[in-house]
């Protein structure tokens, strides 16, 4: 029984356009109808003419290298991995994750270098402090210069404490880095917070912040249990950069998020000004 | 017209033995053809390249699945390219799917000129194009919707606002005419 009905079904089957199972056709083919098998093969060949009719189009030259690279480091032995066959969107996320890992590694390296440098500076500052203390002791009898030395001593002590804090935060085992993104008033602003949950202290490295009027300051907030807690105020240099340490935040439970607002100089107990930076801590 | 015998089966055998150079040769021979088909279906260069990459990696892994008794290597590659492209197309929304146009509606941009370099390949391509162009418009349209957009008979009927029975007839007549049109040339070249 080879009529138009079968030809129609076979033609649709050859194109993959049946849209479902045709029990009648399935059974007929299973019964081993050679005529229909042959016709189906020919119709499939005919359908393939559509593919042959399409103009060739050269891919980007880089694709060849990508394909060959995907065979594995040893092209002779290694079949492609599933990861190399992932859809583009998945690969994009993987690439983003890889980039994040690289960024983390770069930052970790930079942090290590920074830590080492700070440790060196700390040792130097301690030495200078010892010298300053000795000098202060020697000149303590002399009123002239005593005030200056005291000021230098206070400055050196503050410097030492700040650097000590930086080292403590940066050396902590649980240090993590969080990105803060610029918000509408200053969309180009950006910052990183290096936060130690055990030390309950953070170091903020900010850039692209606008200089503020003399009566204004940037204020860092840490969100604890959904509520903002004052983490200190800071100014930026003429290039809009800042490197500041948060104040002691031992009273908070956990840092959930960070934000920076513009507030009256000296800071406010609660945020009142526009948010210029905000981030989300990693889980 | 005397058409060349399929010269690619040796490459497939070498690929089965994990010969990367053979895969590179196969890529050089056919990546443009596969890219053309993937682009024709997907209408987007980046995704088309992903399909091409997938196909060649699949060949590397599954070269042993090639059955020389069923057709040429190129036909095998084209089927793989088409099925992967259609799979991607089906994950898109209807609006994007509808954006895929027929050959006549989307002339190739100058920058995307046909890069078929093989003389026999060009000749065969022209034969196929002529055969398709000679089809009545409604038959050609039905075949293209099925082949390049992966539409089912019901979907073709909806798209063309035609009765289902009419669509079936158009598909049958179109494919049968193509079969007759290229029968004199078919010596393995179009085997699928």
Description:
The complex is a heterodimer of chains A (283) and B (192). By secondary structure, chain A is of the alpha+beta class. Chain A has two domains: 4-128, no CATH class; 175-279, Immunoglobulin-like (Sandwich). In chain A, 45% of the residues lie in helices and 19% in strands. Chain A contains six helices and eight strands, in the order ααααααββββββββ. Chain A has helices at 4-15, 23-30, 34-52, 61-69, 88-139, 146-171; strands spanning 176-182, 190-196, 201-207, 216-224, 227-234, 242-245, 257-264, 275-279. Chain A has an eight-stranded antiparallel beta sheet. In chain A, strand 1 and strand 2 form a beta hairpin. Chain A starts with a helix and ends with a strand. Chain B has 192 residues and is mostly helical. Chain B folds into two domains: 7-98, RNA polymerase sigma factor, region 2, helix turn helix motif (Rna Polymerase Sigma Factor, Chain: A, Orthogonal Bundle); 106-187, Orthogonal Bundle (Arc Repressor Mutant, subunit A), CATH 1.10.10.10. Chain B is 67% helix and 0% strand. Chain B is built from nine helices and no strands. Chain B is globular. The two termini of chain B are 20 Å apart. In chain B, 46% of the residues are buried. Classes of the chains: A alpha+beta (283), B mainly alpha (192).
